[in-house]
Specification:
The chain is mainly α. Helices cover 82% and strands 0% of the residues. The N terminus is likely disordered.
Length: 469
């Protein structure tokens, strides 16, 4: 594994391979705190909302507005985050997001009125949206091809871990109805993210895009075996040279037919991830369980099961994604989600009882297991991989912008829809969306397993051109 040397290094010195692995893991651990904050800030509202409802006298529409304010902020944050990451770099953009995470968490926790809360959650959403684009982008570019799927999926694991942490803290603080503490504790991991980023480099691909070849080589020497560095530099430089010949800006590049087709597929995948109902469960699980007869504190505590299965399922998905491939994971997951939602909708026709409450919880857990192991993991990974380098930040920002807009719409409409037509019809609608999403993914979702990003760009260009013929 390591080359022979005239003088053997001390046994305590780590090999180059081990040093690179440690370096990559350190980067992943710090950068993915952005994912954990994303998860915490989206998940914590489920426990705080019942107490905010009483404190502020919220209607169903008011619940939707407070929940979705963060999401519309995230939509604009994702759009700005993609462009900002291209201009300032992946690392510096995450630094900006970390600072806003800190201020936004404190503002939300101290909000004296509903309008102040809505504005504060919108501001916090800017950081959530930026991190949702920049973190997987950063990880996909820093990772060697053979572990890229697992490393980018680690961000998905951190998102659901953040949600689980939110559910656990909600359950503990619910006995004191301390909803402001639930919201404010997000500032602690935000501080850790902000400080940790000062110790990280940017990615080799971004350095090369700015003509900083020596810094790119330095990063590659810390993440790849020595005999692969020159080849990787050459591959990235070749991709940059082809782009320079085109002499187009990023926005102009999006008008190229094959790039536009890839962007539309990415936007479609982003919509698929949201219209299938995942965030309705994440944001409103206690409300759903309360509708079956559970008390507020019991419903908040029971929601821990949703967070726990999300973490376990995401870990399983991470272990499989580079072996099984992206497309098979998406198709399997959407099939399981369709069945789960059909059963979940039917369960609301049973008489209210404690047993029915736990049946509903079990079916939500089953649905979330399929979702987090396959669709959530696969879509975030594909969005980080599938766009050409020149427009990667901009295109991913645009796709995630649409994702957050759909997320916003679901969060705003779900509590109103729940009151208007009932849980059964609502979940059957989500089941229908799963069927339509399955057909879309079967037709359009690309397979990106095991390919270097530059080689993948070449393959997608050929495939897209063939699809247009």
């Amino acid at each position: 594994m390591s080359a022979a040397h005239a003088v053997s290094p001390p046994s305590s010195a780590p090999s180059p391979g081990r040093k690179a692995k440690r370096f990559i893991l350190a980067i992943a651990a710090i950068a993915a705190l952005g994912g954990a904050l994303f998860g915490y800030d989206t998940g914590v509202v489920s426990g705080a909302l019942p107490y905010m409802e009483r404190h502020f006298g919220l209607s169903s529409l008011g619940e939707g507005v407070i929940t979705s304010a963060l999401l519309i902020g995230a939509a604009f944050g994702s759009l700005a985050g993609g462009r900002m990451s291209d201009v300032l770099g992946r690392r510096n953009s995450l630094l900006w997001a970390g600072a806003v995470f800190i201020g936004g968490a404190l503002a939300v926790a101290l909000a004296p009125t509903v309008p102040f809360m809505v504005v504060a959650r919108f501001a916090l959403g800017l950081a959530v949206g930026s991190a949702s684009v920049i973190t997987p982008l950063y990880l996909s570019e820093i990772a060697p091809p053979h572990i890229r799927g697992r490393l980018v999926s680690f961000n998905s694991l951190m998102i659901v871990s953040g949600q689980l942490l939110a559910y656990l803290i909600n359950a503990v603080l619910a006995q004191w109805e301390a909803w402001r503490w639930m919201l404010g504790l997000a500032a602690l991991p935000a501080v850790a993210l902000f400080i940790g980023l000062f110790f990280l480099p940017d990615t080799a691909r971004w350095y090369i895009s700015k003509g900083r070849t020596e810094q790119a080589a330095h990063v590659l020497r810390r993440t790849l075996p020595a005999d692969e560095v020159d080849g990787e530099l050459s591959r990235i430089n070749q991709a940059r040279a082809l782009e320079a010949e085109a002499q187009r800006g990023a926005w102009q590049e999006l008008r190229t037919p094959w790039v536009r087709r890839i962007l539309l597929i990415g936007v479609g995948l982003a919509i698929v991830q949201q219209i299938t109902g995942v965030n309705a469960v994440i944001y409103f699980a206690p409300k759903i369980l309360q509708s079956t007869g559970l008390g507020t504190n019991a419903a908040i505590t029971a929601t821990i099961a949703v967070g726990a299965i999300s973490v376990i399922a995401t870990a399983i998905g991470m272990s499989l994604i580079d072996k099984v491939g992206r497309r098979p994971m998406l198709l399997t997951g959407l099939s399981g989600m369709t069945v789960s939602l059909a059963l979940l909708g039917a369960s609301f026709h049973l008489p209210k009882s404690t047993g029915v409450s736990y049946l509903v919880l079990a079916l939500m857990v089953l649905y979330m297991g399929f979702m987090q192991a396959t669709l959530n993991t696969g879509v975030w990974l594909l969005l980080a991989e599938m766009f050409p380098l020149k427009v990667r930040g901009l295109a991913m920002g645009a796709a995630v912008f649409v994702m957050w807009l759909v997320n916003f719409t679901v969060a705003l409409v779900f509590p109103v829809l729940l009151d208007a037509v009932g849980a059964s019809v609502t979940f059957w609608v989500f089941g229908l969306m799963c069927v339509l999403s399955l057909l879309f993914c079967k037709r359009y979702a690309p397979e990106t397993k095991g390919m270097a990003l530059e080689d993948l760009e070449h393959e997608l260009r050929k495939t897209a051109a063939g699809g247009e013929a």
